[in-house]
Every structure is written in structure tokens, then in C-alpha cells.
Specification:
By secondary structure, this protein is an alpha/beta fold. It has 3 domains: 84 residues, Arc Repressor Mutant, subunit A, CATH 1.10.10; 100 residues, D-Maltodextrin-Binding Protein, domain 2, CATH 3.40.190; 94 residues, D-Maltodextrin-Binding Protein, domain 2 (3-Layer(aba) Sandwich), CATH 3.40.190. It has 9 helices and 12 strands. β1 and β2 form a beta hairpin. α5 packs across α9. The radius of gyration is 32 Å and the shape is rod-shaped. The chain starts with a helix and ends in a 12-residue tail after the last helix. The relative contact order is 0.14.
Length: 307
């Protein structure tokens, strides 16, 4: 089989139709250039050039081979460039996990910026609850993810991307929907839709802490894992709920979202996490784009995350 070096020599001679000029173009002397052409002709078992002491011309076989040789060289150069770009984190793919709630606001903003900054890196999106993401990160099935704490900080690196307060979700016809101000004490003994202690452990633990500190005891009527489902049940009048501020982007008709005083203040956090031993070079690009986005003005519903 012929070699790429032989193809380069052939194309140079075919374009220059002069061995001296072709050798200078390739930074070679004429003898090794002639040897490469002879080896190529031997491998192909055809004569590519008609040579005289005064001229060089392509044979019919050489004319036919020239465009194919150029195509093969372009293909090889493209493959090498793709490999180098992948190694530099400029191309490739990232298996990226996310929670449903991160898709309300933060994830769309990140995807938009990432496609602008890194159009040759594909984000392969996988919706999972945080616990499943942590397992997938550990096993290498995903490269990075948007998850809720806690997680093993010795195994993962992370970046806090969202810190947002909680809002009270109220059915539109509820008495609290018209109140001037709402406090945690207003939730005592009220019907309340809360989070599953299994699929939504982060929010479940957060609310348990908030109510314990406030000495408030809502009446839990449903345990649900997804925020949009919780809002649907609030709309149906099953009870009140506390949701992160990003849920306002869902614009649920029939549900009123109100600020509520929580002392001490409790903020819902979202982190981008990745395994420290992950060898995907594109991760560095994702982190850089995310840091740039966090350095810009945040959306009105979300507080700026620390860098």
C-alpha cells in the first residue's frame, strides 16, 4: 500500500510538472523525491509521469490518480485535525446529565452559549435525578451533570451554578393567594405537597430542615419527585408547595407564586459536577464556557453563583 508521503510527492510533482521545483516545495532534494515517485508507481503498477530531460507530463493514469490523491490527502489532514481538536477539547462529545428542574432556566442558557462557543462539541443530554446522575458519573456513563448536593467531593470536582430562594406555590383561589405577606407560620397544619424522600432527597431534606427550624407542621398529602408535577397538583387544589424560583419559568396557569420569609435563609443550590479522573478533553471547554456564563449578568429569577 502506498504511503501519504508518496502521495504528497506525487501531488507536488503533478502540480509543478518540475522535479526541482517540487523538491524545493517539499524541502527535499531531487533524489529522494524521485525515489518516492518510483515507489508509488511500483505499488500502483502504473506509470504516472512521462519524463524527458526537458519536461515532465502526467500520463493518463496520472491524470486520473491526481484528484483521488488530493482527496486522500485532504481526508488524512482532516482526520489529523479532528484528532488534534478533540485532544484540545475543541471537538467531540460530552454525555451530560441534568435534573428536570435545571431544564427550566439554567440548562437552556448554557446550551445556547455552548453551541455558540463550541459548535463542534455535541452535548448528549440525559435527564436523570441527582442520585442516578451520581451513579452514572461514577461509572463513566456521563461525563458531567447538573445535580443537587450532597455528593462525594473527593471523587468529583464541581461548580455551583445556581443559588436560588424558594417560592410558595398557592392555588389561585386559595386565601393565601390574596394575602399581603406570607410567612412559614401560615403553612402550619395546611395541606402540603412535598418532595419524595427517594427521587428528590435534596428538596425533601431541605424542607424538613426549614419546617423543623420554624416549628411548623404542614399536613403532607402527596410525595412527588418532579417540580412540574408538584405545580400541577397545586393547581388542582391538593395543597401548597415550596418550589425553587426557576419554577416561575413554567408559568403554570392557576398557580400563584409568592415570596415567603424563611429564617434562617435557605437557598436551593445546583452544581455542575464531573469526575476528577474523567479524561474527556471537552470537559475543560464546558467548564470554561460555564464560568464565562456565570461571570455575566444572571437571569432575573436566579442569583449569581460564586466563581
Amino acid at each position: 500500500m502506498f504511503e501519504l508521503a508518496q502521495l504528497r510527492c506525487f501531488v507536488a510533482v503533478a502540480e509543478e510538472l518540475h522535479f526541482g521545483r517540487a523538491a524545493a516545495r517539499l524541502n527535499l532534494t531531487q533524489p529522494p523525491l524521485s525515489r518516492q515517485i518510483q515507489l508509488l508507481e511500483h505499488v500502483l503498477d502504473v506509470r504516472l509521469f512521462e519524463r524527458t530531460s526537458r519536461s515532465v507530463a502526467l500520463t493518463r493514469a496520472g491524470e486520473s490518480f491526481l484528484p483521488e490523491a488530493r482527496r486522500l490527502l485532504r481526508f488524512a489532514e482532516g482526520a489529523a485535525l479532528a484528532a488534534r481538536r478533540t485532544a484540545r477539547g475543541e471537538a467531540g462529545a460530552i454525555n451530560f446529565g441534568f435534573t428536570a428542574a435545571s431544564g427550566y432556566e439554567f440548562l437552556p442558557r448554557l446550551i445556547t452559549l455552548f453551541r455558540e462557543r463550541a459548535p463542534d462539541i455535541d452535548l448528549v443530554l440525559r435527564e436523570m435525578v441527582s442520585a442516578d446522575q451520581i451513579e452514572a458519573l461514577t461509572s463513566g456513563r456521563v461525563d458531567a451533570g447538573l445535580i443537587r448536593p450532597p455528593f462525594n467531593r473527593r471523587e468529583f470536582d464541581s461548580l455551583c451554578v445556581v443559588r436560588e430562594p424558594l417560592l410558595l406555590a398557592i392555588p389561585a383561589g386559595h386565601a393565601l393567594a390574596a394575602a399581603n405577606a406570607v410567612s412559614l407560620s401560615d403553612l402550619d397544619r395546611r395541606a402540603f405537597v412535598t418532595y419524595s424522600p427517594y427521587e428528590a432527597r435534596y428538596f425533601y431534606d431541605l424542607l424538613v430542615t426549614i419546617f423543623r427550624e420554624a416549628r411548623v407542621s404542614p399536613v403532607y398529602v402527596q410525595y412527588i419527585s418532579q417540580i412540574h408535577s408538584i405545580l400541577g397538583l397545586v393547581k388542582a387544589g391538593l395543597g401548597l408547595a415550596l418550589v425553587p424560583r426557576a419554577a416561575a419559568n413554567l408559568r403554570f396557569e392557576g398557580v400563584v407564586l409568592r415570596d415567603i420569609a424563611i429564617a434562617p435563609e435557605r437557598i436551593a443550590e445546583l452544581h455542575m459536577a464531573w469526575r476528577r479522573t474523567n479524561s474527556n478533553p471537552a470537559i475543560a471547554t464546558l467548564i470554561a464556557v460555564t464560568r464565562d456564563m456565570l461571570g455575566a449578568d444572571p437571569a432575573p429569577e436566579t442569583e449569581r453563583a460564586p466563581r
